[in-house]
Amino acid sequence: MARNEHITQNIDWLTVLIYAACVTMGLFNVYAAVYNPEEQTKLFDLSNNAGRQLMFIGSAGFLIIAILVIDHKFWEAFAPIIYGICIFLLLAVLVIGSDINGSKSWIKIGSFSLQPAEFAKLGTALMISKFITQPSVNLTKFRDLLLTAGIIILPMLLIILSKETGCALVFASFMVVLYREGIPGIYPSILLIAITLFILSLFFSPLYISLGLVVLAVIIFRFVLPRYDRNRKTIINLSVIFGAMMLFSASVDFLIKNVLQPHHRKRIEVLIDPKADPMGKGWNVIQSKIAIGSGRLWGKGFLDGTQTKFNFVPEQHTDFIFCTIGEEHGFVGSAAVVLLILGLMCRLIFLAERQRTRFARAYGYCVAGILFFHFLVNIGMTIGLMVVIGIPLPFFSYGGSSMWAFTILLFIFLKLDAQRPFTLSRT
Amino acid sequence: MSENRKFFVYGLFVLVGIIYLIRLLYLQVLDNTYETASNSIRAIPDVPMRGQVYDRYGNLIVYNTLVYDLHVTPNKLKVADTLALCNALSITRAEFDSLMKAAKVYSRKKPSLFLRQLSKEDFAHIQDVLVDYPGFEYVKSSVRTYSAPTLAHALGYVSEVSQKQLDTQEYPYYRQGDLMGQSGLEKFYEEYLRGQRGVRYVMQDVNGVAKGPWKGGELDTIAQAGQNLYTSIDLEIQQYVDSLMQGKAGAVVAIEPSSGEVLAITSAPSYDPALFATRDFSKNYAKLALNPYRPLLNRAVMGSYRPGSTFKTVQALVAMQEGAISPGSIFSHAGAPMKCHGHGGLSGVHSAIQWSCNPYFYHVFRRMIYANTEKNTFKASAMGLRKWHDYTQKFGFGQKLGIDLPSEAKGILPDVEYYDKRLGKKSWRFGQIYSMSIGEGDLLITPLKLANLAATIANRGWYIAPHLVKGIGKNDNPLPEFKQRHETGVDRRYFEPVVDGMEMAVVRGTVSRGAIIPDIVMCGKTGTSQNKKGKDHSIFIAFAPKYNPKIAIAVFVENAGFGGFAAAPVASLVIEKYIKRHVDRKAYEQEWMNKNFLQNVIIPKSQLPKPKEQKPAPTKPEATIVNRDKAAFNKLTEAP
């Protein structure tokens, strides 16, 4: 009993409130997305997706209670086992998985399907948090970095094998926690430079990028570096760095044209110019922007959206649920959702920073990072700023696996946070 | 050091949040291109039935028949066998290609009109076939249907709105493919006839399948049916006039003098209005436009003729009112430049009208023009003409009478400025304009104006602008301008000698004996309109009975010669038919129905078929015209 009192007193109610708000809004928008004006769609009806979503939320409630009851030390202690189970499931899905939408990533249990990839994020987050916060592990050491990368890349590869590239990309979000936990700044810098160069090479030919890089290198050498640094050694270093950058941008061009599968390449092309293929890959982007744009300031009203019904927007109740929000609730509604998720992420960082154990802090950063990646990509693709990658909007999108996985992910952290007063030291 | 890195993480989150908020603000509030591209709501126009047209006794003249318009959406179209489709639609491959090209030019994604006005029977035939051709859809529409092949000019026609009309419309009502009245009553009363189009907003899914009303039909507007037109046309008389005018070019306008209501209005040669209500509209139009007798010209309101001697009535009235002459004035033939037709002694205005004496009216006009004290003949002529013009224009000459038909011609009633411009200021006098005294010279009138003159004389001094529509929809009244009485300013008593003269002209004067109607006192005046293109036009104006007149009429028969000869019999038969509802003079009727003056009509060179085509210049009108008249005639004669 005492423990339960502690929980109700110490749990971060603001986060719970934001969570509840997101889940409720998500439910109503899933209902609006599947709502058919011709036949009255009932919310409490398992035959439609809104009813099922309600059931997912209800069962998530039981998961929350279970997590809050389970001892907080369990997660840190059992992290390797949970990670192992996830890896096992990812392997299993390759063998017994059902084929849905061309990707073999679902395990069918009765009438429900489970997507192990969603839970792999959770397992990896726990494993990473445990591994990098071991006193013996030093993230500036190359060997430890390699091991860390291995923990992340192993599930990634398995997910890519089951043809869920979008889900695999989410693992890039662990860069956030690594950064916070002391990975040398050079690695995120390299990542940022690589992303910048990648985006640039989508729009410009490698030749122009190389020219620009040469000019940049000359400027740095002549005007930025102090006089005493302008020696032969610096020139060689700069040449190597900028040469690598040129090589990278050239290889991106090669990568897109020769290595990427055609449907991936199309997605990138339509991001640059959706009108290039309006009825094909560009369709999603255009329809999604039309739906959101037609909402104007105040929106068309609950259930009065028209673009997000009738299949104009694909995946309108899952990955493109943000379109329904944008259409029916306008700028006011969509901005509120953006601010809500942004608030949740910042709150998580705040909570993570006040943790007394490094594990809890690292795990908090993992959760915030994963949420951020989904936020970045999911909303970004609906408003035409990101490549269309099929990942859900946390707590909003329809889907049992993602609803459960995100709920567990979040509430493990809330449980850790609630135990903070009783944890004595920072290890 | 790592502690500070949290700020970078916060910064990254907030930066992305702000970028997304700005993007959303732009998409949803600042830029409305995405809103207008919204494609899930389809506005379905609900085109109401066009108003029907009735005659004065409530008989239907124009009504609507349900037809089907076939629309095509080029992008959705899948045609495996074009030839089979063409056969099913009974069009040629070339027609199919050109129709499809037009549709593609309009839009590849949106449906556009492919075949218009398929009858129920045709549609039933192709409906089954079309199932195999996605991309075609049909829309119910209606087509104008005529209870009798008459009144083509007055009714006008309806056709698809042109690009120019779309671009120039003041209030943006019409859209591509809409129908619009293009001439006649259909054009004049377009806004009443068309009704108000309604719009239903329907949600559709990505495949264009309707998914129920948007917002529960809150924004829908209900179509309002077009208003019916109740005309003053007497359909029986109208068809009788048509049959009398067969084989003739010209016009007949009959008016009820007391109300200005048009009883019959015919322009000959005419055509069957149904020709323009089919999907062969353009073919038929082109055919009629090339016809050398110009059947498309509405001679009744657009044809400009000289009034000839019918104008002498006006000259007498105006001169008497001015005091230039008195009802008993007598003038010798001496000094007049034109000859007299030969008659007994004159005893005043009435006998001059009776015999249509040219020298007499030369003097009348001369008196009128010089009825002032000015010594300079140039100045005196100008003064006189100005006064004369003031009088005569009150009869409606030289201006539009304002009939409810578009493109009414003004005609010409020369005034001082007219001659100043043509002959130079103060350089003209009576000697140059005297031919107007007998309705020749520069005067130009339309048959409608002469019918109005007949009505004005019948009314002894006033008229109501002639009009065809006496009730619109639920309103029993014509437009307000058709209730207004126009006074000529000529005293009632001066009409008596003129009316007497017109009565005597029929009984024992210029009008041929056969035109006398037993039991009915008809007052008439012949006219012979000189023209450069062959034989004179025959003109006759009349009204009857003499007291309390029921009908006033003007008849023009082109190139038929002397006025009393051709036009008077037609007028006399129409009057008898209208007043008695039957004609006793069967042989006379038959004779004039069969008379053909078309061979006299001189076809302008520009209208002649080009020698290249190696077609002989037709001496008879197109078969369709003659056949139609015969059919109408047969119908009439069969009726008891």
Describe the structure.
The complex is a heterodimer of chains A (427) and B (640). Chain A folds into 2 domains: 2-174 and 262-422, no CATH class; 185-259, no CATH class. With 427 residues, chain A is mostly helical. In chain A, strands 1-2-3 form a 3-stranded antiparallel beta sheet, with helices on one face. Chain A is 68% helix and 3% strand. The two termini of chain A are 29 Å apart. In chain A, a hairpin with a 2-residue loop joins strand 2 and strand 3. Chain A has 16 helices and 3 strands. Chain B is an alpha+beta fold and 640 residues long. Chain B has 3 domains: 37-59 and 147-231, Penicillin-binding protein 2a (Domain 2), CATH 3.90.1310; 65-141, Penicillin-binding protein 2a (Domain 2); 235-638, 3-Layer(aba) Sandwich (Beta-lactamase). Chain B is built from 23 helices and 18 strands. In chain B, strands 2, 3, 4, 5, 10 and 14 form a 6-stranded mixed beta sheet that branches. In chain B, strands 12-11-18-17-16 form a 5-stranded antiparallel beta sheet, with helices on both faces. The longest helix of chain B is centred in the first third of the chain and has 26 residues, at 5-30. In chain B, 44% of the residues are buried. Chains A and B meet through helix 8, helix 13, helix 14 and helix 15 of A and helix 1 and helix 2 of B.
